[in-house]
C-alpha cells in the first residue's frame, strides 16, 4: 500500500522486544507472540523519516492495536532518551519519535492546515485557529498514552492502544464544550486514521494549562508532609482537604453538565443485574491471572451480589469512567477534568455504556487511598505509618464527598452498598491494571481490598 512497508515489516521483531519496556504498553502480563503491521503512513519523507505505524500485538488469544511514531535516520540516535531506540534496520537508526521535536512539529502544523497525509486526517475544531511551527516535548508524568506539549500552548495526546471509532474522550470533550462546561481543557483538534475499516481517533489536541498542577502531585505532596511532620492534618501547610472538597464540587458540576449535554436515563433492575454480572465477570478474570486476589474472591462476590438487591432506580448517564487524581488539574481558576476515555483496558462497548455517576465518585475515593498508600510501597511494614496514611485518606475522602453533596444535592455516601461495591470493583480493576502495567504497585489495591473487606468499608 504505502511506501516504506518493507522497513516497517523488518522492524517487527525489534518492536516486539522493545514494547514491554514502554510505560504505555498495557500487555506486560503476557509474552508477545507476534507483532504485525496493520497500517503505516509516511508523515515526513527523506532523512530523517517519520512514519506513523499501527501494529497488531498478539499475546496468545489477545490481539490489540497500538500506534507508534517511528523516526528513522542514517545518523545515530538524535537527542531522545536511550529507551526510544528500537533498532538498526538497513543501515537506518529507528526509534520512537515522540521525543524528537524536529519531527513532531509537523503533527500540529498538519492539524492547523487541516491536511490529509498518507491516509491520516488532521483536523482543527471548527472555531479553533492553531499556531504553527511550535516545537513539542513529551510530558513526563504518569500516563497510559503519550502526550506532547507544543510551546506551552497545546497538548496533543496520542492514544497508544487503539479501539475503532471516535474516541470517547474527544466525543465527551466536544459535548461538554457545547454546554459551556468550565471544568475541561478546550478541545482544539484531532487526528484520525482507519482501523477495522472505520475512522478511528488516534490523537486529540487540547489547550495546555501551563499553570496547572495535577491532583496526584498535590495529593501525594500533602501525604508526604503529613507522614513527615506528625501533626494533625488540619495543622499542616499542605493539608489537601479544602482542595478535595472543591474537587468534589467540580466533579458534581461536570456530571450535571454531561447530563445536560447528553441526557440521563432512569436505571432499572436490568441495569443493576448487568452491573453485578460485569463486576463478577471482572473479578473472575482478574483472579484467574493474579493469584494474590483469590483469597478475597468469596467476600468480594457477596459485596457485588448485594447490588442486585438495591431498591429504587439508579439513574445512568455518560460519566468519566476512570476518574482519579491523575485525571484532574488544579489551575489558577479551579479544577479541570481530563481524559474522558474510560478505563484503558475496557472494550468500546463498555466505555460507551451509560453508568451511575457514583462510579466516578468511587474512582476518586480509590485514588485518595492510592495517594495515601503509595509512600508505603516497598517499605518495611509499620502500623503507625499505615494508620497515618489511612487517616489522611479518610479526611480527604470525606471532604470530597462533602463538596460533591453540596453541588449535587445528594450525598454519595447515602448509597453505601452501591458505592462500596463500585469501590471494590475499581480496586479489582486496579489489581489487574497494576499486574499488567506496574507490578511493583500491586500491593496498593490488594491492601485496600483487604482493609475494605475487614472494616466493612466505611468511607
Ligand atoms: N490540558 C492540559 N494542560 C496541562 N497538563 C495536562 C493537560 N492535559 C493533560 N495534562 C497532563 O498530562 C497528564 C496525562 O494526561 P491524561 O489525559 O490523563 O493522559 P493518559 O490518558 O495517558 O493518562 C495529566 O496527568 C496532566 O499532568
Ligand atoms: O490515567 P489512565 O487513563 O491511563 O488510567 C490508568 O492508569 C492510572 C495510573 O496512571 C491508573 O490509576 C491508578 O493509579 C493512580 C496513581 O498512579 C491512582 O491515582 C488511581 O486511583 C489508580 O486507579 C488507572 O486505574 C488506569 O486506568
UniProtKB/TrEMBL annotation:
Q: What is its EC number?
A: 2.7.1.175
Q: Kindly list the biological process annotations in GO that this record carries.
A: glycogen biosynthetic process
Please report the organism this UniProt entry assigns to the protein.
Aeromicrobium yanjiei
Q: Which family does it belong to?
A: Belongs to the aminoglycoside phosphotransferase family.
Q: Cite the source lineage.
A: Bacteria, Bacillati, Actinomycetota, Actinomycetes, Propionibacteriales
Q: What is this protein called?
A: Maltokinase
Gene Ontology molecular functions = ATP binding; kinase activity
Tell me the InterPro entries matching this sequence: Kinase-like_dom_sf, Mak_N_cap
Alphabetized Gene3D superfamilies for the sequence: 3.90.1200.10
Subunit details for this protein?
Answer: Monomer.
Domain of life from the UniProt record: Bacteria
Q: Which UniProt keywords apply?
A: ATP-binding, Carbohydrate metabolism, Glycogen biosynthesis, Glycogen metabolism, Kinase, Nucleotide-binding, Transferase
Residue ranges constituting the Maltokinase N-terminal cap domain according to the UniProt record: 18-100
